[in-house]
Specification:
It is a single chain. The protein has 1017 residues and is mainly β. The protein is 10% helix and 46% strand. The chain has twelve helices and 48 strands. It has a 22-stranded antiparallel β-barrel. α9 runs antiparallel to α10.
């Protein structure tokens, strides 16, 4: 029975909104600008120091009548209605709207706006003016987050922050990307950054937080900025500030989009190409004694004489035996399990309040049906915030949020479809889907999509609550409490007609619940002395606790399959039963001092004392200090004569952070059940499964950072440059032990790593005309060198784990592919030398790099082939606006990374595979080896699978139109923007994989085409 979904209501509502939008757009287009005849208005624009402001824009509100100021700041504007309002604007200064009220002479003083130097950014346990920052902090505002719609805000900031590497390892709907801040530090402990939402540490990724609820995201990158979070900030800190209520007129915003998704395609062999590859495999094995296709030999070249396969290939021959490959019956199995994916998101926000009470409410719905059958993700969310000023010394408030997620998967039907013989039809002559197409022991992809299912449900309730008390002498006390509760269930079902190939159906059901809370006690002191000295002090005591419980069971032999995982008790056999419990706690004390002299010299001192329950008894606590200094060079007297710069600031800092992201019980040990035999009898017993280390202590990172912030050319160009080096030592690393000891490893504090790099961010206003045309561009460049500097025995490589001194943690170490052996006199002579030393080379086989050139391939010939870490990444974003029309695009690149993708390696045409340029005697390819019957995977085939993973992606292109305010005001609407976006419409890559960010025969990446609207009332 088809389920009725509430999505229909959203679609009906969206249609109505679109109808109104198109009507308004139609009216706006034909109404035009109605200008009354008027007089001439002139004047002069100056800044707060009395200097003229050249190039400022003056526009008559509601029209396109405008001009620019000259070099002396003067302007003149004709045909202005005496009752009109003029809009004065200039980059970096506050836009002003002033009514003429009959005046013809109007001089205006523009003041610097709270953007750039005066902009307030979140720095952890407080805020600071951007001009006062001493650490490396990057900020992404709401507009940038919403510019690329995504289920997770982290996906939206990919490429927009220098020093932050955001990459996807899975393309399944609902899967979140991985984020790294200035590289990988730890070999085995976690490298994930700390997420903090409204001051409270947040477990997991950010997909439970609606993008439309976010006001800004700040990323603390260097240790002088992250040390305030101590052990939690070891891998960088991502601070999320959500929207809250405000005094004045209530604001209602509605953001909605709907889109379709198209799978990126793999070039898989069709029936004609598959048959020819099979013939070549047979010829190379001496089993196809003909240079031309013959039906008799074709009928004998498959592993199983499946009648449907033989019918498909027989269709290519006429009664005289002439072969026409275009008449082969071909079946697109990938197309059969593919579908046009859909994605939609609808979010409603209400903000309002009075001077004493401020409230906000939001509700959201997200749904993504994947491009492969059986995959999807949906989410409902609610959020409420209240800020109440009780009296002049007491303020309380909080936020309450919830999200309800469902993620659907199935077995890897894309893999099944990709390797299925394309000669085999989907159904038999009776219209029934075949259980094993072609007679192979492999699932029918369509049946697997219909009979195998995995469903993950998760419910989350989290919030942050505070009380703020103003005490005498400028001291403020704040109490923060952040509870976070999650529960969920994962159901897995494998039907008899799916991947089990007629076997007994199986199912499993696992549940979990976790509770995490943070309790902070904060004291603040801020004071200005003699208008010269500014002092800020922050003191903290923090307690953090985490508990996790799970229960799971699995069965086989379900009597009726439609129950799936919902009634395990009816099964004939219990195949698994288990439970788990985990807990850890942190206790922290922190102090931070900010001092500024004449707003020119700024100093920040931070110290945090952290205690972790995960570590050994005598090593639970450690101290993490940091110091940072900034110098506003622009305010020095010698800079007055240098007119090029508008702002120039130097930053320097050093700090230490710690990491304890390991199992909570590494220092306590645990037992596992084992089986003992006594004579003919067996019985259960228990044995230690973890070797205890009573000396386990903190993994520590020390980081140096130097940065330069600048603005020049009348604030038309601004940016920052950072260079850094971070050294991590006492790594929490499993040390290999002899198996005879009874244990394979023990976790110890051994080894060290280093990351060093450069970050460049540039923002420019390229064009700003009196006619209203603006063109802004942002450029980001980031290069990080990641290397291991020491392991168990000092500067000695660990070849077994592929850890090498001077190279990244995730490095590839293997034989190097150098081409294909050709049937030439030179290659035949060289092959003879290698074969004399034990090789079995022949023309068409893979040629390997012989490092020592001794004509013998051994393990010593392996080399480091590359790393998953890119050598550099960069981006270019650009936005153009003109009379309500906006056009933007975003380019992102990762260069110098290596990917490994064997894509199943089906290489004898028993199963289908990629349509690659393989070697034949006639086609002397140097890319892929010859197919050979009886050998599924070619010798040394893995060496071909190392590829250059560099890519350039056009992440999105957006065209939008904002309805003029003069029209919207008639229906009491503040803003209405409609837009169309194409996500990932173009990709340039060097590898043959479907996407460097999503490898293998997994769910393919997609192109997404979206239409949406953003309205506020």
């Amino acid at each position: 029975m088809k389920k009725t979904s509430k999505v229909i209501d959203f679609k009906q509502f969206a249609r109505k909104v679109w109808s109104v939008s198109l009507l308004i757009l139609f009216l706006g287009y034909y109404c035009g600008d109605l200008m009354a005849q008027g007089s001439k208005v002139s004047g002069k624009l100056t800044d707060s120091s009395g200097n003229p402001v050249p190039g400022a824009t003056i526009v008559v509100k509601g029209t396109t009548n405008g001009t620019l100021t000259g070099v002396d700041g003067n302007y003149s504007l004709n045909n202005v209605n005496p009752s009109a309002t003029l809009i004065f604007s200039f980059v970096g200064m506050t836009t002003q709207e002033i009514a003429l009220n009959g005046r013809t002479q109007l001089d205006v003083t523009l003041v610097s706006e709270a953007v750039g130097l005066e902009e307030v950014v979140v720095v952890g346990y407080g805020t600071m003016r951007k001009k006062d920052l001493t650490g490396s902090v990057a900020s992404v505002d709401r507009a940038q987050i919403l510019s690329n719609p995504s289920v997770s805000a982290i996906s939206s900031i990919q490429g927009k922050v220098a020093g932050i590497d955001v990459f996807s390892t899975s393309q399944k709907p609902g899967d979140a990307p991985t984020i790294r801040v200035r590289g990988n530090r730890s070999i085995k402990a976690s490298n994930d950054p700390l997420y903090v939402v409204d001051g409270i540490p947040f477990m997991g990724d950010l997909k439970d937080v609606n993008s439309a609820d976010i006001e800004s995201i700040e990323v603390l990158k260097d240790a002088s900025a992250t040390a305030i979070y101590g052990s939690r900030g070891a891998n960088g800190v991502v601070l999320v500030t959500t929207r809250r209520g405000k005094s004045g007129k209530s604001e209602v915003t509605f953001d909605s989009y709907y889109g379709v998704q198209v799978n990126n395609k793999l070039d898989i062999m069709n029936a004609e190409e598959f048959v020819e590859c099979r013939r070549q495999a047979q010829r190379n094995a001496g089993k196809y004694a003909s240079d031309v296709p013959t039906l008799a030999l074709d009928k004998t070249m498959f592993y199983y004489p499946d009648k449907y396969v033989l019918e498909s290939i027989s269709a290519a021959y006429d009664e005289n035996g002439n072969y026409d490959p275009s008449k082969i019956k071909s079946y697109d199995w990938v197309g059969a399990i593919s579908q046009t994916g859909t994605i939609q998101d609808h979010q409603l926000n209400v903000l309002g309040g009075t001077d004493k009470t401020k409230i906000s409410f939001s509700a959201g719905y997200f749904d993504n049906k994947g491009g492969i059958q059986g995959y999807g993700y949906s989410k409902y969310s609610l959020r409420l915030t209240i800020d109440q000023e009780i009296n002049r010394w007491l303020k309380i408030g909080g936020s309450m949020a919830s999200s309800f997620n469902k993620k659907e998967e199935t077995t890897n039907v894309f893999y099944y479809a990709a390797i299925t013989n394309p000669l085999n039809p989907f159904r038999d002559e009776n219209g029934v889907l075949q259980l094993m197409p072609g007679g192979e022991l492999m699932a029918n992809a369509i049946l697997a999509a219909q009979n195998d299912a995995t469903e993950n449900k998760a419910n989350r309730f989290y919030g942050s609550y505070y009380a703020e008390i103003k005490l005498p002498a400028g001291i403020k006390y704040r109490l923060n409490f952040g509870p976070d509760y999650q529960d969920g269930r994962t159901g897995v079902f494998r039907g008899s007609k799916g991947s089990l190939l007629g076997g007994s159906p199986t199912a499993s059901n696992s549940t979990f619940n976790q509770f995490h809370y943070t309790l902070d006690n904060l004291l603040y002191y801020d004071k200005i002395f003699n208008n010269v000295h500014r002092l800020g002090v922050t003191l903290l005591n923090s307690i953090e606790s985490y508990n996790y419980e799970s229960l799971n069971g699995s069965v086989s032999g379900l009597p009726y399959e439609y129950q799936m995982w919902n009634n395990l008790g009816t099964a004939t056999a219990i195949t698994g039963l288990g439970s788990s419990y985990s807990q850890w706690r942190l206790n922290s004390y922190m102090g931070r001092v900010n001092y500024a002299l004449k707003d020119k010299y700024m100093l920040t001192l931070t110290g945090r004392y952290d205690g972790s329950s995960r570590l050994a008894e005598d090593h639970k606590y450690s101290f993490f200090p940091s110091v940072a200094f900034s110098w506003r060079i622009i305010d020095e007297p010698f800079m007055k004569s240098i007119s090029l710069f508008d702002d120039l600031k130097l930053r320097m800092g050093y700090g230490k952070t710690g990491n304890t992201s390991i199992s909570p019980y590494e220092t306590l040990g645990s037992l596992s059940r084992t089986t003992y035999v006594s004579g003919d009898n067996g019985f259960f017993g228990y044995a230690p499964n973890l070797l205890i280390n009573s000396d386990l202590r903190w993994e520590t990172t020390g980081q140096y950072d130097m940065g330069l912030d600048f603005s020049l050319l009348n604030k038309r160009l601004s940016g920052s440059i950072d260079v850094y080096q971070q050294n991590t030592h006492d790594l929490l690393l499993p040390r290999q032990l002899p198996i005879a000891s009874g244990f394979s490893s023990i976790t110890q504090n051994i080894g060290s790593t280093r990351n060093s790099g450069i970050e460049v961010s540039l923002s420019g206003l390229l064009i700003n005309t009196a006619g209203g045309f603006q063109w802004r561009t942002d450029v980001m460049f980031y290069a990080n060198k990641e290397e291991i500097t020491e392991l168990y025995y000092g500067k000695v490589d660990d070849i077994g784990n592929k850890w090498f001194i001077g190279h990244p943690i995730n490095s590839y170490y293997d034989y190097k592919f150098t081409g294909i052996w050709q049937n030439t006199d030179e290659d035949n002579a060289l092959m003879a030398q290698y074969n004399a030393n034990g090789s079995t080379y022949a023309p068409g086989e893979i040629k390997l790099y012989d490092k020592d050139d001794n004509k013998k391939i051994t393990a010593d010939d392996r080399v480091i082939l590359g790393s998953t870490v890119p050598k550099w990444s960069g981006s270019l974003s650009s936005t153009m606006e003109y009379k309500g029309i906006d056009f933007s695009f975003f380019l992102y690149t990762r260069q110098g990374q290596t990917v490994y993708d064997e894509m199943g390696g089906q290489y004898e045409a028993r199963y289908n595979w990629l349509n690659v340029n393989y070697w034949t005697p006639e086609n002397k390819s140097n890319e892929f080896p010859r197919p050979l019957a009886g050998r599924q995977t070619p010798l040394n085939f893995g060496t071909v699978c190392y590829q250059d993973g560099s890519f350039v992606k056009l992440k999105y292109v957006t065209l939008g139109y904002t309805i003029p305010e003069r029209i919207l005001s008639k229906i009491d609407m503040h803003k209405l923007r409609i837009y169309a976006t194409a996500q990932n419409p173009y990709m340039h890559k060097n590898c043959w994989s479907i996407d460097p960010e999503g490898l293998g025969f997994n769910v393919p990446s997609v192109k997404t085409f979206i239409v949406g609207l953003s309205a506020s009332f």
